[in-house]
Design goal:
120 residues, mainly alpha, 5 helices
């Protein structure tokens, strides 16, 4: 039986932060969720790399928190980043790549709709 490898403490902490961010987002605490997502993203990217599945998940979490908070411009930036990472990590035809593109468009539409409404 192979020896079990324990992940480094920093990786354990990053995963905890990501789970916390999901719970906070689901509870409607979007700004706290955004902070936890951002911390998890920075740690995961440093530990696992830009295109690792867990890092990509953290980018998605960050984008979702921002979208749910109504921060459409910054959510669009995160979804744009997510889309680029998905294209490299999974390919153009992957469902997550398509979802990221769709969510980016939803942000742009929401942002545009908000600014159009303010002009009237």
């Amino acid at each position: 039986m192979p020896a079990q490898v324990t992940p480094p403490a920093a990786l354990v902490r990053a995963r905890q932060l990501l789970r916390r961010a999901i719970r906070l987002n689901n509870a409607g605490r979007f700004y706290a969720a955004e902070r936890a997502s951002w911390q998890a993203l920075l740690m995961l990217e440093a530990l696992l790399g830009r295109f690792d599945e867990e890092t990509v998940e953290a980018v998605n979490g960050l984008a979702l928190c921002r979208f749910n908070a109504g921060q459409y411009a910054t959510a669009a930036d995160a979804y744009r980043d997510l889309h680029a990472r998905c294209r490299v990590a999974y390919g153009h035809d992957d469902p997550l790549t398509a979802i990221a593109a769709d969510r980016l468009q939803a942000c742009l539409d929401a942002f545009d709709g908000r600014h159009t409404a303010h002009r009237h």
